[in-house]
Specification:
Blueprint: E1 3-7, H1 12-24, E2 30-34, H2 38-46, E3 57-59, E4 65-67, H3 68-79, H4 94-106, H5 108-112
Parallel strand pairs: 1-2
Antiparallel strand pairs: 1-3, 3-4
GO molecular function: protein-disulfide reductase activity
Length: about 130
């Protein structure tokens, strides 16, 4: 099993993050699904993540699920390279990190915009998106 990233499919910030991850995933280790998709909801139930979550969710290949700032830091760690340095933020208390995450999430549509429908992968990307 690969790492699975569940994301808000209508959020421009989230879609930009998915594009960045695909571009920098040199090990081809991530699959993707939107939180709004049937597969996304199925995975949330399977890994016991609340269905009402509005955060990025990372499901590691070992079956552990991460949300909010923990998910972001795990993704950076898995991508490696210069992003690995962001692991230093793990030393900050989770409530503080998650409060910053929540603040960005609260205003993400206002600052970055929102799509009317979920992101559709290109023909080349389709194999990496779960349906």
């Amino acid at each position: 099993m690969r790492q699975i990233l569940l994301f808000d499919g209508v959020c421009n910030l989230c879609n930009s993050a998915v594009n960045f991850i695909m571009k920098n995933d040199n090990k081809n280790q991530f699959n993707f699904a939107s939180l709004q998709s049937n597969k996304g909801e199925e995975l949330l139930r399977e890994f016991k993540v609340p269905l009402a979550v509005e955060s990025v969710v990372l499901i590691r290949a070992d079956g552990r699920a991460f949300v909010k700032s923990d998910a972001v830091l795990e993704i950076c760690s898995l991508l490696g390279g210069p992003l690995k340095i962001l692991k230093i933020f793990k030393f900050f208390p989770r409530p503080l990190r998650d409060a910053m995450y929540d603040l960005i999430a609260k205003f993400r549509y206002r600052f970055f915009g929102k799509k009317e429908t979920c992101r559709l992968p290109t023909k080349e990307e389709r194999a990496r998106f779960l349906s």
